[in-house]
Amino acid sequence: MTNTFLDCAKPIEEQVDPLDLEHFLPYRLSRLSNLVSRGIADAYQTRYGLSIAEWRVIAVVAKHPAINASELVRHTAMDKVALHRAVHSLCTKKLLERRENNRDRRQRLLQLSNKGRHLHDAVAPRALAYERMLLANLERTEIHQLFDLLEKLDASVANANNHQR
Length: 165
Fold this sequence. Notes:
- This protein is mostly helical.
- It has a domain at 17-128: Winged helix-like DNA-binding domain superfamily/Winged helix DNA-binding domain (Arc Repressor Mutant, subunit A, Orthogonal Bundle), CATH 1.10.10.
- Helices cover 63% and strands 7% of the residues.
- It contains six helices and three strands; from the N terminus they run ααβααββαα.
- The chain has helices spanning 25-48, 52-63, 69-76, 80-92, 114-135, 140-164, and strands at residues 67-68, 96-100, 108-112.
- It has a three-stranded antiparallel beta sheet.
- Helix 2 (52-63) packs across helix 5.
């Protein structure tokens, strides 16, 4: 007998196999994320010379121009070291610019350069096309349900992480 996602509501001692990976949500989400990332990484790297982390930074900065580093960490949910490397690389490639924050001179704000905006505008349609391929087997209602469930999981993560500490 194997666990299902619903078994998580049972006390741990009542669960048959508490670490059945195929029914362990963090594993399934991580695996799916890795498969999706691998599917698009080659295209980003080969065609545009971007890593997944670099594309994620470009996409977030495009949506949130003049963002500071702590906000970027929050929006990307990336490790600070990996994020720093991606930002440094994008600045070196002249895709991202740092500028002084007039309200707080200790902070630097990040924005896309003209070259970065052009790259974003070239990559974004391909990213959206990939997303459409991923969602092609789902009905419209299932897509809405999926995104509603992802929102709920996003909200649950902070609470779960606070309880882990």
